[in-house]
Amino acid sequence: MSLVIARNEWRRLFVQPLAWVLLAAVLVMLAYFFLLTLQGFLVLMPKIAGNPAAPGVTDLVALPLLRAIASVLLLVVPLLGMRVFAGDRQSGSLSLLLSAGLSDTRIVFGKYLGLVAFLALLIALALAMPLSLNIATALDLGRLAAAALGLMLFAAALAALAVCASAFAQQPAVAAGLALVLNILLWMLDAGARYEGVTSNFVNYLALPTHLEPFLHGIVAVVDVLYFVLLSVVALALAARRLAASRMRG
Amino acid sequence: MSENSTAPTPLLQLHDVSRLLAGRCVVAHLNLTLDRGSVLGLLGVNGAGKSTTLRMITGVLAPSAGRVLIDGAELREQPRIARRLGYLPETAPLYPELRVSEYLDFCARLRGLRGAKVTQAVSGVIERCGLGDVRARLLGNLSKGFQQRAGIAQALVHAPELIVLDEPASGLDPLQAVQIRALVRELGKEHAVILSTHLLPDVQACCDRVAILHQGTLRYDGPRDALGDDLEAMFLRIVSSDTEAAA
């Protein structure tokens, strides 16, 4: 039943201009960034060609692009997810789902899946850029696969945060703002501690980059996978609780 | 829940249902039953607690106290029973960006229909609600009357036993209101219907039973025919007596 809701969310995203505009804008921006880094690499290539230990095209072109995708997702996911519940609540269409006899968890999960599927498309299209280099050169495909997995888990966690913010907010704009603040806080959480010279494992563990970076270096560790899964589960559970509370509180 | 007596379980039972909203008692100790094949008009002025009652029946809102039973089972314990209900809230729950047929397709699947049954149910309900000419149009571009029909179609698509309509004819022009009333009357032949309204013509045109709700309590519950033309007088008496007392 969650799949029925997910399919509908996907369809609704694609018949509205917001998703198309964001998709186009993000891809244009990433393409420009990709061409810049590629140009930089072509200038640098003759100088490092003789050194066998020098970083290759995967390091110098593909990974900067993946990092750019991650930064863009921090801003774009809140916008894509803001309407999920807050928009339905505002238009009065949320009662359609609430009166359908589904558990709140299923409703939340369906909405979440629809958003994650859209983000998967965005990431796949963005990854097609560095992958196109494979025609002319040899990329480290294993490392790119690990990075793609990391990026997908990262996007899924951001989607869960956006869904959660949308479940709590009454208006979509408030939901977007709330999700954005959460994203940026989690993104920069460890930086403040580091500037102060404090190295706290706990603070580091909570921050998003701590768990994304290993994937970009080709390391798939259970602890990092678990972090993203845990973050998603907690955010979605809170969203489901909020729906249940709205039935109780009115 | 098994019944040993010969009387069948009523389709809908409200047992001493109360609801507080923001500290105010909106519905108090409401008892109501509805059998199959009857059309009940829930009559009351704005703020009488009609919408809150209907939201509790459909599970959108949980009662603060009391029980809502659908065919003897509580919605909270068996959420799936909600599939036997169709609900049109005060604002039709439409997705303005979808086409009429896409929207109804989703609504049918949401209530558990699959495969060929979906197509069948959607085309059936489109015909029944007179949406044939607009089936490929976006819901957001339809007139209020057609949007309301799409809202009713959504409540009917899975052929529920009980249809709950919250002010189905409000905000419509007189001609559209007459058409919607005719549709509700038609529905009453096959389904149990409960509709809320503050308009007497709605009750007179469609309902065989009337329940008058005022300030959250049930003031009258009985067959409409027994009242005849006295309905209006009684409704006004109930509504104005408390207002005068308050003044």
Structure description:
- The complex is a heterodimer of chains A (250) and B (247).
- By secondary structure, chain A is mainly alpha-helical.
- In chain A, 83% of the residues lie in helices and 0% in strands.
- Chain A is built from eleven helices and no strands.
- Chain A has helices at 2-14, 17-48, 57-81, 83-91, 94-98, 104-131, 141-168, 172-195, 201-206, 208-216, 222-249.
- The radius of gyration of chain A is 20 Å and the shape is globular.
- Chain B is α/β, with parallel strands linked by helices and 247 residues long.
- Chain B has a single domain (12-246), classed as 3-Layer(aba) Sandwich (Rossmann fold).
- Helices cover 34% and strands 25% of the residues of chain B.
- Chain B contains seven helices and ten strands.
- Chain B has helices at residues 50-57, 100-110, 116-128, 144-156, 174-187, 200-206, 230-246, and strands at 12-21, 24-34, 39-43, 65-70, 73-74, 85-88, 162-166, 192-197, 209-214, 217-223.
- Chain B is globular, with a radius of gyration of 18 Å.
- The relative contact order of chain B is 0.17.
- The mean pLDDT of chain B is 89.
- The chains are: A mainly alpha (250), B alpha/beta (247).
- The interface between A and B is medium-sized, with 24 and 36 residues.
